[in-house]
């Protein structure tokens, strides 16, 4: 390995063949909406008079919503983090670019069972989670930060630079590296530093994947992620990628567009929207986020706040973003690769933001610990409730021959965190430990 450069000698690995250079040898996310329940589905339809039969049907559905709501609220409370909210922690590591989600819970996930001497943040962003992890683990010797978005990585790298400067003054050492890479390349990145890290003969102690978009991505209109700002229909996480949302809307087969809205956006009125998008092509197509939002606004029943067109638009934007970045297939492949890179006793934590992601994480975790296909009916595999003051988050665990799923049910943000950061409300944390 090339000798690490001293503090402030930073270099991004922008070219795929160029090896990453160390940050320093020093003393050392729009949120995507959660899967909607049937109680908050929004009607998206052509304007016109509502038939009496339709009104009666809607009234019946309304009664079902009221009856179902107490159970849904109970289930949501059951998975909430019971940890005491540390406002000072969020104050130190949150900033204008991004507020890290489930920060206290993520830190707790890596307190045990082994010292955290090596850590990989697969979605560096503004480095909120990474900085908190470095601060909590002075024993850390190797840090790797990855992000497919070079702009986000540059911001995070700057924050790490400032932290390393202070750590150097206290006499500690930490080799820190950043890579402009999608987390699906985690084996390649680790192998470029030390082959044993990639093949699992030694492995790393901890890996974090935060699947949410950061505020700095959502708030930039030129990225095309926001339903509230007019910009190009882009939605690429990797600016070097070729496929854009505009290409899908204007060029892909009509049935494929509908499938994307149905499968990736879980949009109940996907057929109607599919037809409207096809009609828009005849009028010149859709070329900006404003064009797409206006199409949805014209054709959707509008009610107050998030119960109106914004929910439908958010689902449509989510579907397009997933398709543009092939997010679900990349996620499943990356979970397998990340688990392979863990040392014995190492942990992988994943923060997801909608049901499609969480479903993949849950299913893949079970497959990983059992070495094959997993069945969602895993009650017989669940270990007894564990009363552990050091790890109150993991009171129900699922044991397998290859590891332990520490979160049979995902951890969701506390009410205090939701008040601080509304974009975290749909976040879910799942953690797996390698045997």
Structure overview:
The chain has 435 residues and is of the alpha/beta class. The chain folds into two domains: 22-31 and 81-215 and 328-434, Vaccinia Virus protein VP39 (Rossmann fold); 222-326, Putative methyltransferase TM0872, insert domain (DNA polymerase, domain 1, Orthogonal Bundle), CATH 1.10.150. It is 42% helix and 11% strand. It is built from 16 helices and nine strands. The protein has helices at 52-78, 87-93, 103-109, 128-136, 150-169, 186-193, 195-199, 215-218, 245-251, 254-263, 270-282, 289-299, 309-325, 327-340, 355-370, 415-420, and strands spanning 22-26, 118-121, 142-146, 174-179, 204-210, 342-352, 398-399, 403-405, 428-434. Strand 3, helix 5 (150-169) and strand 4 form a beta-alpha-beta unit. The longest helix is centred in the first third of the chain and has 27 residues, at 52-78. The chain is globular and about 65 Å long. The chain starts with 21 loop residues before the first strand and ends with a strand. The model is unreliable at 1-19, 24-43, 45-49 and 74-78 (pLDDT under 50). Keywords: Methyltransferase, S-adenosyl-L-methionine, Transferase.
């Amino acid at each position: 390995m090339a000798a690490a450069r001293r503090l402030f000698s930073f270099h991004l690995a922008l070219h795929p063949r160029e090896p990453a250079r160390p940050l320093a040898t020093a003393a050392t996310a729009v949120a995507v909406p959660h899967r909607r329940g049937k109680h908050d589905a929004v009607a998206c339809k052509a304007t016109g008079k509502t038939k009496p039969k339709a009104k009666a049907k809607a009234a019946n559905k309304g009664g079902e919503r009221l009856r179902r709501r107490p159970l849904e609220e109970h289930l949501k409370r059951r998975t909430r983090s019971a940890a005491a909210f540390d406002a000072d922690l969020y104050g130190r590591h949150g900033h204008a670019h991004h507020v890290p989600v489930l920060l206290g819970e993520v830190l707790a996930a890596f307190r045990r069972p082994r010292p955290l001497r090596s850590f990989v943040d697969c979605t560096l962003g503004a480095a909120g989670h990474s900085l908190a992890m470095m601060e909590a683990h002075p024993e850390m010797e190797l840090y790797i930060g990855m992000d497919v978005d070079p702009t986000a990585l540059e911001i995070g790298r700057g924050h790490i630079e400032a932290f390393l400067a202070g750590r150097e003054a206290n006499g500690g050492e930490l080799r820190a590296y950043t890579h402009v890479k999608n987390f699906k390349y985690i084996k390649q990145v680790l192998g470029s530093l030390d082959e044993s890290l990639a093949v699992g003969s030694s492995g790393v102690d901890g890996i974090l994947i935060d699947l949410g978009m950061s505020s700095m991505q959502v708030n930039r209109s030129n990225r095309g992620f926001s339903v509230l700002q007019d910009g190009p229909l882009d939605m690429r996480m990797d600016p070097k990628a070729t496929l854009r949302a505009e290409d899908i809307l204007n060029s892909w087969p009509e049935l494929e567009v509908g499938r994307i809205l149905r499968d990736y956006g879980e949009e109940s009125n996907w057929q109607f929207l599919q037809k409207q998008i096809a009609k828009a092509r005849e009028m010149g197509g859709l070329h900006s986020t404003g064009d797409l939002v206006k199409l949805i606004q014209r054709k959707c029943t509008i009610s107050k706040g998030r119960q109106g067109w914004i929910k439908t638009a958010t689902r449509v934007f989510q579907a397009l973003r997933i398709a543009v970045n092939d997010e679900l297939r990349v996620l499943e492949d990356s979970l397998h690769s990340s688990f392979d890179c863990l040392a014995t006793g190492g942990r992988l934590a994943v923060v997801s933001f909608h049901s499609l992601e969480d479903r993949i994480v849950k299913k893949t975790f079970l497959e990983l610990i059992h070495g094959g296909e997993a069945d969602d009916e895993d009650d017989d595999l669940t270990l007894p409730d564990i009363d552990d003051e050091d790890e109150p988050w993991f009171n129900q665990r699922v044991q397998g021959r290859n590891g332990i799923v520490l979160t049979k049910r995902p951890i969701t943000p506390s009410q205090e965190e939701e008040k601080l950061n509304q974009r975290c409300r749909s976040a879910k944390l799942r953690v797996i430990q390698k045997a």
